[in-house]
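Researcher: Go.
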Amino acid sequence: MEQNTDGNMAQVRHVVLVLSGKGGVGKSTITTELALALRHAGKKVGILDVDLCGPSIPRMLSIVRTDVHQCDSGWVPVYTDAQKTLALMSIGFLLEDPDEAVVWRGPKKTALIGQFVSDVAWGELDVLLVDTPPGTSDEHLAVLENMKKHSSIDGAILVTTPQAVSTGDVRREITFCKKTGVKILGIIENMSGFVCPHCSECSNVFSKGGGEELAKLTGSVFLGSVPLDPLLSSSLEEGKDFIQSFPNSATFSAINSICQTLLNNLEID
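Model: Structure:
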């Protein structure tokens, strides 16, 4: 993709949407871990959290109680490190109480998404990951319409769990992408087996292979499977960097492999 040339998106090289057909599949988890894996691969990464009713990524990155500042170009994103290699913008930073419910009608949500897309001063980024709400709602259309005003979208990653009910919902997400002209970069099967915290054996609690089979049926790239790992869950709850803490785990290997495939697909050196 050619480098963007419009305003705050001018130095953002690649934009990737993270989508799921339904809630509860770990889409925000995948977004967070992909961002951390990209950072560990030496890339500058941003996360735009437009899951307005469930902004969980600030907690996952342990930056909940943070004020957002203004600069001449708009909002300054919140950085997770002194080197400014991972930036985040989320509605979670704009709520006085993190437990506050976002009870807004569509036009107000659409307006905020427009501001998020145009008014965040990202600076230089290799990849901007956009964490979206579940489903195919007005928010998704608002993201696409506003993004296309300011940049190109490289494509979308679809997150599913192995069960048929989840892969069925992702089929609708695939249809949404095709209707809106968004390239599908690949499918990730999350919660693909349970990793025992004692012996590290992986058991198929739900089922396995649904995401890979869906990728074959729809002609999409299968990026890989990520198991349900208690160590990953506790790291997210505590706002710790799982990839840094458990570099020898099978879950790290799975996330890192997906990260490298994404980098290859985006043709990032």
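Model: The chain has one domain: 12-266.
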